[in-house]
Amino acid sequence: GNLIATSSIDTTVTIWDVEKEKALTQLIAHDKEVMDVKWAPGSMSPHVFAAVGADGSVRMFDRRQLEHSTIIYETPGANPLLRLSWNTQDFNYIAAVPMDSSSVFVIDIRVPAVPSAKLRGHSGAVNAVAWAPHSSCHLCTAGEDYQAYIWDVSKMPDEVKQPILAYTADSEVNNLAWSTAHPDWIAIAIGDKIQLLHV
Predict the structure, then answer these.
(1) Which residue in 36, 42, 44 sits closest to 13, CA to CA?
(2) What is the spatial distance between Cα 176 and Cα 193, in angstroms, rounded to a whole number?
(3) For residue 78, which phi and psi values (nearest 5 degrees)?
């Protein structure tokens, strides 16, 4: 579509119309900085979006009822959340990355408050997470430990003990993107370079 959502340190999320080059709405989304925002995939888009913030919560919003939001998850001790990724095949699952944490939480929006899975395998902070565009049970995480991992979460809520694939980069991985056009490829950002991984 022609809408984008942006997050801000001023606690807001702004919805923009790219074609009209103007903000459609701005709302106070969190109690502290908003670190990331993503549109829901599929039939829920372009109305539903989720945001994570420095207040440690994952919140879901509907553009048709912006006076309300649903808190999907809150971290223990209000640990800030840095990133989120919405499962593109099963819209009930969101992955969230706590700031300065080596773990990733998988949250089922139908069963809020308790993570469906905690992915613990990195030895440094996780910087990025992305769901596979072609699979409801695979996601990739990458972080400061130079690692990019692919996880199989098909057995949730059973514990996911280790990744099914691992790649070691030359330095910390800052971001990643799983190609929707070519789902056998993942791009990882390392310093000022991008590497392509064939999976």
Answers:
(1) 36
(2) 12
(3) 55, 40
